[in-house]
Structure formats: structure tokens, C-alpha cells
Design brief:
Largest sheet: 7 strands, mixed
Bound molecules: 6-O-phosphono-beta-D-fructofuranose
Order of helices and strands: EHEHEHEHEHEHEHEHEHEEH
Radius of gyration: 22 Å
Strand order of the largest sheet: 3-2-1-4-5-10-11
Number of helices: 10
CATH class of the largest domain: Alpha Beta
Number of domains: 2
């Protein structure tokens, strides 16, 4: 390997810059030329390539987002587009590609690699922590910390006004963010995508809390298919149980900010191991966390979404917030 490319794809996540820095510096250490591909697969198709040196990744370890930008690229679902991408990379003499992104980005990478016989390595980067075969995805820890800080602030105003709040967190169909935030904020209830909303149980819990002197109630809502489902829950609580509540959708605030120590550490390891995987010809693999250690797993095992939802986590949140 003399020259490698790397890109970010899908939603950004805090820690992507740490992975980028690790890729560039590990490559240079091994006399490999690192090339940044801007704006994901879309940028690849537009030939947005920038050769990187050690100083081009200076002073980025603490920055949120991604300095090389990212995108969602529906065109990459087409075989002919993926073929064109391989041609463009070969024209640049790029011999291997590192993709930092989520399951959608990995599915594109897998097809691209097998159809065009092009070496690919994945790095899981998404705040959702929902990729099969890895215990961790870059950005999750920072995102939950951001959400926890926000919920703590909401608790201040909720208890000042004796209010019920529905706080909606990101994570699409994954309950990872919601479950962890609920436990860490002492939320009175948590609504996750896979379980039908039990309004009676929520209302009973709120009323029980009020009768024993609680001044506020926080319900964490996982966003599900589409953001904004909290408004429907609010409406039902009002119409069926005469419970008035406020909604706060945290949204993209959870995607920004300086990465936590965990995200910096894991991302740095993953960036390093991804370049080594290319050097050692361990192609079509992904840098994953298994049993707490950063290692490699086959790309084919990292294509599915997972939801680490467990009944006992839900129970923990409920028992601790009676
Ligand atoms: O994939 C990460 C994520 O932040 C999800 O939690 C969320 O549902 C989605 O991206 C939002 O996507 P967009 O940035 O395109 O609005």
C-alpha cells in the first residue's frame, strides 16, 4: 500500500476527527500517502480529494463534527455509481479505502468492495451505537453526555414549575441513547421504539410520584422512525389522562460538541488499527470493540442494525425512579 483514501459517511459524530487524525498519522508513520475524500461518497464521485500531511490534522483532536465533512449519498445505491467511484480512486492511485460511518455506509462499502475488488476497511462512527458486531460506535459517549446535561437543566425548570416533560433523544430505531440517558438522569419513564406505549402505566407512575410529593416528572422518548413522536404522546396524555406536559426535542445538539475521553481514545485506536489492517491485507474488515478491546471483525458481520435494548435496563430505570 502506497496511497490510501478515507471518508466520512452518514450522520457525523463526535470523535470522527480523532479517527481522521489517527489514520493520517499512522499512514505517514508507515510511509503511506493519506488522501482525504471530502463529503462522503458524494464527494468521492465529484473527485474531492486532498492529500494530507501531519499538520493537516493538527489541532483537531478536540473538535466535534468532521473536518472532511460527510453526506448521505442515495446515488451510491446504484452499481454503476459504485463502479465509477472505483475508477476515480484507481485514477488517483488510491489502493485502499477507509469508511467512517454507520450501517448504511458499511452496506455501500461492502457492495462497492465486492463488485470492484477494492479493499475497504470500516470504522463505526455514529452516535446511535447500533451496529452489529461492535459494542461501541464513535460518538455515543459524547452524545449521551450532551443529552444528560440537557435533561439535568430541564429537571431544574420542571421541578420549579412542577411539570411533566417529554424529552426526545436521537437514535432512530435504536434505544441505546434513550436507555442510558434515562438511567443517568433518574427519568421517571422511558419510551423505546420496540415497546408499545402504555399510557395507563405512565399516568399511574406520574400520579404515584405526585402523591408522594414529587415535583417533576421526566419521560425520555427515543425518537423512533421520525423525530417528533413526543407530540403525539403529549396529546394522548392530555386527552386520556388530563396530564399536561411540555415537549423538548434535543435533536442535532446531540451530534455536536467536543468528543469525550472515551470517544477520543476509541476513535484514535480505531483509526490506527484500520490503517494497519490495510497494510496487513486484512481487507473488508471493520475496527470494532469486542469485550472492551479494539479489534477487527469481518465487514459482512457489521452490516446490520442492532438495538442493544434489554428488558432489565428498562426495569432498572423504572425501579430507580419510583
Ligand atoms: O444516524 C445518526 C442520526 O443522528 C440519528 O440518530 C438520527 O435519526 C439521524 O441521524 C438524523 O439524520 P439527519 O442528520 O439526516 O437529520
Amino acid at each position: 500500500m502506497k496511497k490510501i483514501g478515507f471518508l466520512c459517511s452518514g450522520g457525523d459524530s463526535p470523535g470522527m476527527n480523532c479517527a481522521i487524525r489517527a489514520i493520517v498519522r499512522t499512514a505517514l508513520y508507515h510511509n503511506i500517502k493519506p488522501v482525504a475524500i471530502h463529503q462522503g461518497y458524494a464527494g468521492l464521485l465529484q473527485g474531492k480529494f486532498t492529500p494530507m500531511d501531519a499538520s493537516s490534522v493538527g489541532n483537531i483532536i478536540q473538535r466535534g463534527g468532521t473536518i472532511i465533512q460527510t453526506s448521505r449519498c442515495p446515488e451510491f445505491h446504484e452499481k454503476k455509481t459504485r463502479k465509477k467511484a472505483a475508477e476515480l480512486l484507481r485514477k488517483q492511485k488510491i489502493e485502499g479505502l477507509i469508511v467512517i460511518g454507520g450501517d448504511g455506509s458499511f452496506n455501500g462499502a461492502q457492495l462497492f468492495s465486492t463488485e470492484n475488488n477494492f479493499p475497504v476497511i470500516g470504522i463505526p462512527g455514529t452516535i446511535d451505537n447500533d451496529i452489529s458486531s461492535t459494542e461501541y460506535t464513535i460518538g455515543f459517549d459524547t452524545a449521551i453526555q450532551t443529552a444528560i446535561e440537557a435533561v439535568d437543566r430541564i429537571r431544574d425548570t420542571a421541578s420549579s414549575h412542577a411539570r411533566i416533560f417529554l424529552v426526545e433523544v436521537m437514535g432512530r430505531n435504536s434505544s441505546s441513547i434513550a436507555m442510558k440517558v434515562a438511567v443517568c438522569t433518574g427519568a421517571e419513564n422511558v419510551i423505546v421504539p420496540k415497546i408499545k406505549v402504555d399510557y395507563q402505566e405512565i399516568a399511574d407512575g406520574i400520579n404515584r410520584g405526585i402523591s408522594r410529593g414529587k415535583t417533576s416528572s421526566i419521560i425520555i422518548v427515543a425518537e423512533g422512525e421520525k423525530e417528533g413522536r413526543s407530540y403525539e404522546i403529549q396529546k394522548n396524555l392530555r386527552e386520556k389522562f388530563q396530564l399536561d406536559s411540555r415537549v423538548c426535542i434535543l435533536g442535532h445538539v446531540q451530534r455536536g460538541g467536543s468528543p469525550s475521553a472515551l470517544d477520543r481514545y476509541v476513535a484514535s485506536h480505531m483509526g490506527h488499527i484500520a490503517v494497519k489492517a490495510l497494510i496487513e491485507k486484512k481487507f473488508n474488515t471493520v475496527a470494532v470493540v469486542k469485550n472492551g478491546k479494539v479489534t477487527l471483525a469481518p465487514l459482512s458481520e457489521c452490516l446490520a442494525k442492532t438495538d442493544p435494548f434489554k428488558e432489565d435496563h428498562l426495569l432498572l430505570a423504572k425501579i430507580l425512579s419510583i
